[in-house]
Amino acid sequence: KMPEYNDILEEKFSKSLDKVNGYNFAVTSIETFFFRAAGYILSAVSSIVVARILGPVDKGIVTVIMLYYTLLFSFGHLGIGRSMTYYLGRKEYKIEYFVSNSVFFAFGIGTILIFLFLLVYKFYNHLFIQNISFYLVLLSIFMTPFGILVLYLESIFQGKGEMRKYNIVVFLNN
After folding, report:
1. CA-CA distance, 135 to 138, in Å (whole number)?
2. Which of 57, 119, 140, 169 could pair covalently with 69 via S-S, beta carbons 3.0-4.6 A apart?
3. 145: exposed, middle or buried (Cβ count in 10 Å: 0-12, 13-18, 19+)
4. What is the pLDDT of residues 3-30, one digit of tens each?
5. Cα–Cα nearest to 140, from 123, 128, 157
6. pTM (2 decimals)?
7. Which residues in the chain belong to E strands, given as ranges?
8. Nearest CA to 110 among 80, 65, 85?
9. Cβ partners under 8 Å of residue 121, min gap 6
């Protein structure tokens, strides 16, 4: 008796769920859950400590400075990380192609965004909060290319199915 098509599909599907790049699917899911939970807890604790040490005014200044970075980062990642995850999953290109392009795009786009931010800051500085040190703003916005690069690295690990490395990078990014 020949096996039915549905039986073959079910067998292949269940085998693919059992292993994800050599790791048990359940173990990988549990690892991801714990890495994410630890990252959120660490983030909350560090936020509480910073708020206690700095006080409300200085904590507000730090928040505004981080807002500049967050805005640049949000405009800068352009969804490239998601597309890298997709194409890496399809295994159409070599990993070296993605790594080199990640570095190029992260620093290229990051540099353009920093330049545009500084241009806007120069001509429209009255729109920004005045009692914030410009050097702290510079320090914050110069982190943009590195933040974009970290996002791209996360996408590369996710696309390759290397979830443990992905979880570590996401955890360290928190």
Report:
1. 5
2. 140
3. buried
4. 555 555 555 555 554 455 555 778 888 8
5. 128
6. 0.78
7. 19-20, 23-24
8. 80
9. 128, 137
Element (H, E) at 69: helix 25-76
Long-range contacts formed by 98-101: CB under 8 A, 24+ apart: 98/152, 98/156, 98/159, 99/156
One-letter identity of residue 159: G
Residue position matching structure tokens 């098509």: 5
Paired tokens of 154:
């996360």
Q: How far apart are CA 14 and CA 37, in angstroms?
A: 28
Q: Could you tell me the end-to-end alpha-carbon distance of the chain, in angstroms, rounded to an integer?
A: 55
Helix axes 25-76, 163-173, angle to 10 degrees: 50
The identity of residue 174, as a single letter, is N
- Helices then strands, counting H and E runs in the chain, come out as 7, 2
- Can you tell me the distance from the alpha carbon of 22 to that of 18, in angstroms, rounded to the nearest whole number? 9
Rounded to whole angstroms, how far apart are CA atoms 12 and 108? 43
pLDDT band at 57 (very low <50, low <70, confident <90, very high): confident
